[in-house]
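Researcher: I'm preparing a figure for a lab meeting and need a structural model of a single chain. I don't have an experimental structure, so a prediction will have to do for now. The sequence is pasted below. Please return the structure as tokens so I can convert it later.
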Amino acid sequence: DQQIPAIRGKVEASMQTRYVTAADEDLNGVQMESIWTLILTWILPIIIYGSETWRPKADEWRSLNGLLDNVLKRLLLTPTSTPREVLYIEAGMMDVTHMMMRKQILMMNRLKQKPSELLQNILTNKDPNSWTTTVEKHINNLNLNMNAHNTKANIGPVKRLTREENYKNMCLARTEKSKVEYLLTHRDPKMKNKRSKYLDCLSRGQASTIFRARTRMMEVKNNYRGKYQDTICRGCGTETETQEHILNECISLHKDESTKVTINEIFDETKSANELRLIAGKIQSLVKMINQNDQPNNRNPINNIRFQRN
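Model: Understood. Here is the structure written out token by token.
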């Protein structure tokens, strides 16, 4: 019962240590390359340590996946309401469920290399709740044909199919979550299971800006409709304040083409690091400008309490 809280505490301690030791306390100016090193070498090993033997219940699965979800949201400076699927699609990562599945199948594969009486008892235990039965279900779900005579030959297929299964599950959310649909509609299909370029070559703050644009999490009214009484643009005052309107259409924000950012530019994987920095800078400027026009009477009444007289 204490395992998940203990993991959560270790993850938090690891992240706080990184914040303290970095020259930039909020890591906004830290290059994303360093952020991914933090995740892969510090955070992930803590979360999935010993997962070869796990058999979590449904609520424990949610908690374990939630640990990594929240780490990614914090490091990408994106709201807690961000759909978890877009995090893994953009980062080219597997969630805890699929990482654990991979580790368990590979462990069974290793155990079969060195048979012993003890291991034989484990591997032949067909009880419905046994570890072996659980792992065999994973193997069947992945349609894996395990090579009994060459266990080394199994490693590649296991890694590939668990990654494919993870991506497929993330994509299923597009039918229910518009932000997942938006990302998958515009993202280059060749980037399947790959981390997007901007998440490697930009600083944390810049990468967060482009991530929000690619997942429709920018701070504009139509992305957060529950926060506002209306969705009329705070710039021109006539059109609906959508992300596309702010980036590419609003006549009060754009006097010429030089300040505009198109969808194609945001999703272009061929852009250089300098071009990506320029795009991030334009988006940051536009978001800042539009939110400067954010007056109390534009907000949801529940947020207006502090402006009322007693």
